[in-house]
Amino acid sequence: MTKKDFLKEMDKHLGVYLSGFGFKIKQDGTIQKTSKDMIWLIQLTFANWGTVHVDNIFAFVKVKSLEKACVEIYYPFLSDSVKKSRYQGQVTLVGPTRNVKKDFFQIIQVNSFSAAFKEYFEKELLPFFNSYLDVQSINRKYDEMDVPYREGVGYIGDYNQIEIYNGFSTAFSIETLGRRILLMKYSKDSRYEGYIKWLKNCIEAGQLDSVSVKIYDRVLPELMSFQCPEIYQ
User: Fold this and answer.
1) Against a cut of 0.90, is the pTM above it?
2) From CA 226, how far away is CA 80, in angstroms rounded?
3) CA-wise closest residue to 17 among 103, 108, 101, 125
4) DSSP code of 161?
5) 184-198 CB burial, b ≥16 within 10 A, e <16
6) Is 61 exposed, middle or buried (0-12, 13-18, 19+ CB in 10 A)?
7) Each residue of 45-71: pLDDT tens digit?
8) Model confidence over 104-123: pLDDT tens digits?
9) 3-class secondary structure, 207
10) Residue 163 and residue 172 in contact, taking contact as beta carbons nearer than 8 Å
């Protein structure tokens, strides 16, 4: 049975069931649930000897208006077509990721596969997705990977501490932090003002190189003045 044929059979047996949780089987071998600003994804791969692998599961944020703003703020010198190509495929925040590495060996027996997958989905996958139902829930998880925050004090720590994100951004950049700022505004994060204050303090303390300082001098006022869509009240 080819991958394409198996996915069709899988949809017949699991399509209605998964749709009850908002998920849809895609022909690229993923199972996805989408909202206005988030995507929840199960990544499948198909190996030899009738094996289906559940590789990884993701929850990530994709807000087109924020991506468009980020590109226009950071790269005003680009043509409109190049700007569009940059923000259309960009993910705003890669949220929590779980490496599953679960194998199902009964690829030809779709009935057996479907029964086993349902059980695994409810016990192992669904609880993960239910932990990250919206942007605000991912923001709270993001805080655990950010510089420390103390109530009544605010964010503490040096600028270079945010260059390592365990499970979030694979490579830190000034643009990544700009997305962070826009996302905090978008989700009505109560710590937004404290984050801006911390960043300004890092700049004033000389923790950034001269090139980064020049970039922030230009982009930070625009990031702060950007009017985010009113989704989270």
Assistant:
1) no
2) 19
3) 125
4) G
5) bbbbebebbebbbeb
6) buried
7) 887 656 788 888 989 888 888 889 988
8) 765 557 788 888 899 999 99
9) coil
10) yes
